[in-house]
Automatic annotation (TrEMBL):
Pfam families: Thymidylate_kin
Top-level taxonomy: Eukaryota, Viridiplantae, Streptophyta, Embryophyta, Tracheophyta
Pathway in which this enzyme or protein is active: Pyrimidine metabolism; dTTP biosynthesis
Span of domain Thymidylate kinase-like: 58-234
GO biological process, one term: dTTP biosynthetic process
SUPFAM superfamilies the UniProt entry points to: P-loop containing nucleoside triphosphate hydrolases
Family: Belongs to the thymidylate kinase family.
Protein name (record): Thymidylate kinase
PANTHER family documented for this protein: THYMIDYLATE KINASE
Highest rank taxon of the organism: Eukaryota
Origin species: Lithospermum erythrorhizon
GO molecular function: ATP binding; dTMP kinase activity; nucleoside diphosphate kinase activity
Length: 257
């Protein structure tokens, strides 16, 4: 005897199938927004990496050619359409900078620790503005920075870690270009000896402390090369660094643990 399902049972079975299809459709529809949310998170992370300008520092002994090369570099970058500014430390236009200028030109006397802290204060005066400019996409070409302050003060006999301490937390350069020259070669260049620190034996000590401050951001260039050759080497390094910063390299703090 063949049992025929009752009408009520058939209706129940059809309802179950419709329910199953509806649930499956609902499940499939749920997968798409979840997938979108993961993609959105990835996009958000990408957007957090903001394009910015690069912080480029030129360092070296007195008369190594920093100021000349800084000027050439700024003119070149301007010429090819980059937003760029030329900075220099000490900044002698501020109140602190004027005190430093008087000291450097031998018009005043200060304790070695006091003048070191003034140099550091001069950099802190500009820290916020420096960060604002970088975030606006402006590349900063800086003639001397914290490394000079530490190297010169350490050469006077101050403890190197004590010298670094006041500058901890300043913006870390993306690239440090060190123009390498001996004090003897530097002394042959025009204007040498006009300021307090331009003495050969003292400059030798400064060079030794510069070596202790080198880190992976440093690039060493032979400053005895022809001016045009030095300029080309600097350009290549700087353009690579600017490109990296445009891709969203984070701004770091100097000597942060």
């Amino acid at each position: 005897m063949i049992h025929v399902p009752s009408l009520s049972l058939c209706k129940s079975l059809n309802f179950w199938k419709l329910g199953e299809q509806h649930s499956l459709k609902k499940y499939c529809n749920l997968r798409f927004p979840i997938k979108c949310s993961f993609r959105q998170v990835h996009m958000d992370n990408t957007q957090n990496s903001e394009s910015r300008g690069a912080l480029i520092v030129l360092e070296g002994l007195d008369r190594c050619g920093k100021t000349s090369q800084s000027t050439r570099l700024v003119n070149y970058l301007n010429g090819i359409g980059h937003s760029v500014e030329s900075w220099r430390f000490p900044d002698r236009n501020t109140g602190v900078g004027q005190m430093i200028s008087s000291y450097l030109s031998n018009k005043s006397q200060l304790d070695d620790r006091a003048i070191h802290l003034l140099f550091s204060a001069n950099r802190w005066e500009k820290r916020s503005l420096m960060e604002d400019e970088l975030k606006r996409g402006t590349t900063l070409i800086v003639d001397r920075y914290s490394y000079s302050g530490v190297a010169f003060s350490s050469a006077k006999g101050l403890d190197i870690e004590w010298c670094k301490a006041p500058d901890i937390g300043l913006l870390a350069p993306d690239l440090v270009i060190y123009l390498d020259i001996s004090p003897e070669e530097a002394a042959k260049r025009g204007g040498y000896g006009g300021e307090r620190y331009e003495q050969r034996e003292f400059q030798k000590k400064v060079a030794l402390f510069y070596q202790k401050l080198q880190d992976p951001t440093w690039k060493i260039i032979d400053a005895k090369l022809e001016v045009e050759d030095v300029e080309k080497l600097i350009r290549d390094m700087v353009l690579d660094c600017i490109l990296t910063c445009k891709k969203g390299k984070p701004i770091l703090k100097l000597w942060a643990s």
